[in-house]
Structure prediction request, 187 residues.
Amino acid sequence: MAAMIAAVGAVSGNRVTVFLSMNALRYFVKDDETAAPAEGPFGQLLEEKQVTPFRTLFEQAVSLGDAKLHPCSMAMDVLALEPAALEPWLAEPLGLTRFLADAADAQTWSF
Amino acid sequence: MATRRLIDARGSFCPGPLMELIAGMKMAQVGDEIEVLSSDRGSAHEIPEWILKVGHEHLGTREENGVWHVSVRKAK
Prediction:
């Protein structure tokens, strides 16, 4: 759902900022094709129907709209990831303090 | 000279058809027309909403045998 909101929001004239942290970040490691587990029965249905995967939607949000995906610097430290290890279409790493300051007056969703 | 292009997004679920249209719009010139084919009912409503929001021209939507044809002209 986060990817759908990011993609549709970004191509509809909104500036979209995504903060990737915790369990999400590993799915943005370059050349790592590990599939994310389906999220519940609806997630299984999405897979069966071959709905566009979230990684593709996020990439479209960046390439077709005004979206930036920032990896969380804390999660990168914990996973021992360098910026070069992540997908090249991600924006620079951010800490939570900076992200919260940027998002202070914005419409926000948490997933 | 304005052109007309068909994007066949049948079998793709929302927001797939919309994203395919937007990718096509990026490459189109002002005045060009694009017709999107979608088997997804939600997209048949979502695409005109997007066209309205970003300021292109919705030329019409029609349904034939479970396939929606949404036409748009690039306005800017």
Observations:
- Residues 2-33+40-103 of chain A form a domain with the Hypothetical Protein Ychn; Chain: A, fold (CATH 3.40.1260.10).
- The helical segments of chain A are 2-10, 40-48, 54-64, 73-79, 96-103.
- The mean pLDDT of chain A is 94.
- The longest strand of chain A covers residues 16-20.
